[in-house]
Amino acid sequence: MQHMTRHILVVDDDPHIRDLLSFALGKAGMTAEEAADGEAALVAIARRLPDLVVLDITMPRLDGLELCRRLRAGPPDHAALPILFLSSRDDEIDRIVGIEIGGDDYVVKPFSPREVVARVGAILKRGVPPVPTPARIAHGRLSLDPEGWEARWDGTPVGLTATEFELLALLAAMPGRVFSRDRIIDRLHGPGFAITDRTIDSHVRNVRAKFPAGADLIETRAGIGYRIGGC
C-alpha cells in the first residue's frame, strides 16, 4: 500500500530559511507549507492539519514557545501534533524549556537542511506503530491503543504527542521492568541518538502532568530509571 505524502508546516520569520527548508523537504518527498509567524501558523493549521510543524522559537506577533503552548492546550489533534523547534540560542535551558512545553526535538541555527530533514523523518517514524504491536495495552485504569495512537484513563481520552505515547506504551507493555534513560532513548530514537537524559525526564514530567494527580502513572527508580506505576 502506498503511503500518503507527509505535509510539513515550516514556521519562521526568515523567508530564506523557509524557502531553504521547503526545498529540502520537497526533495525528500514531502510537501511543505510556509508561515511567517505563529498567528499565520494557527490559520494554516486550522485550514489543513500538517503531519509535523518545524517551528522557530523567536518570531514577532506570536513566538514559537507560545504557539506550542496553545497547540498542546488545544483539541486532541492539535495537542498531538509533532513539533521540531528551531532556535538561534544554543542554550541547555532553552532546549529543556522547549521540550518541557511539548516539543519533540530541537535544532540549533545555523543548521544543515539535511539534518532538519533527518530529524523530521525520525519524528514522523515515531508516529508509525511498530510491527508487530499488541492490539491494545491495558494496565490498571490506563488503556493504550497503539494502532489508533489513543490513550485513555478510566475511558477518558488523554491527548499525548507521538513521543509521549510511545514512551508510555514502552513502559506499559512491560510492567515491572525498569528502563534506564539510555534504554528509553535507544527504544524511542535508535542507538546513538543525541539527546540528553534530562530530555527523557522532561517527557516523563509532561506525560504525568496530563493525567490526574495521584494517578501513580510512572514510577521513578532513583539512580536507575523509570517503570510503569500501578495506575
Automatic annotation (TrEMBL):
<feature type="domain" description="OmpR/PhoB-type">
    <location>
        <begin position="134"/>
        <end position="230"/>
    </location>
</feature>
<feature type="domain" description="Response regulatory">
    <location>
        <begin position="7"/>
        <end position="124"/>
    </location>
</feature>
<dbReference type="InterPro" id="IPR036388">
    <property type="entry name" value="WH-like_DNA-bd_sf"/>
</dbReference>
<dbReference type="GO" id="GO:0006355">
    <property type="term" value="P:regulation of DNA-templated transcription"/>
</dbReference>
<keyword id="KW-0597">Phosphoprotein</keyword>
<protein>
    <submittedName>
        <fullName>Response regulator</fullName>
    </submittedName>
</protein>
<keyword id="KW-0238">DNA-binding</keyword>
<dbReference type="InterPro" id="IPR001867">
    <property type="entry name" value="OmpR/PhoB-type_DNA-bd"/>
</dbReference>
<dbReference type="InterPro" id="IPR016032">
    <property type="entry name" value="Sig_transdc_resp-reg_C-effctor"/>
</dbReference>
<feature type="DNA-binding region" description="OmpR/PhoB-type">
    <location>
        <begin position="134"/>
        <end position="230"/>
    </location>
</feature>
<dbReference type="InterPro" id="IPR011006">
    <property type="entry name" value="CheY-like_superfamily"/>
</dbReference>
<dbReference type="InterPro" id="IPR001789">
    <property type="entry name" value="Sig_transdc_resp-reg_receiver"/>
</dbReference>
<dbReference type="InterPro" id="IPR039420">
    <property type="entry name" value="WalR-like"/>
</dbReference>
<feature type="modified residue" description="4-aspartylphosphate">
    <location>
        <position position="56"/>
    </location>
</feature>
<dbReference type="GO" id="GO:0032993">
    <property type="term" value="C:protein-DNA complex"/>
</dbReference>
<dbReference type="GO" id="GO:0000976">
    <property type="term" value="F:transcription cis-regulatory region binding"/>
</dbReference>
<dbReference type="Pfam" id="PF00486">
    <property type="entry name" value="Trans_reg_C"/>
</dbReference>
<dbReference type="Pfam" id="PF00072">
    <property type="entry name" value="Response_reg"/>
</dbReference>
<dbReference type="GO" id="GO:0000156">
    <property type="term" value="F:phosphorelay response regulator activity"/>
</dbReference>
<dbReference type="GO" id="GO:0005829">
    <property type="term" value="C:cytosol"/>
</dbReference>
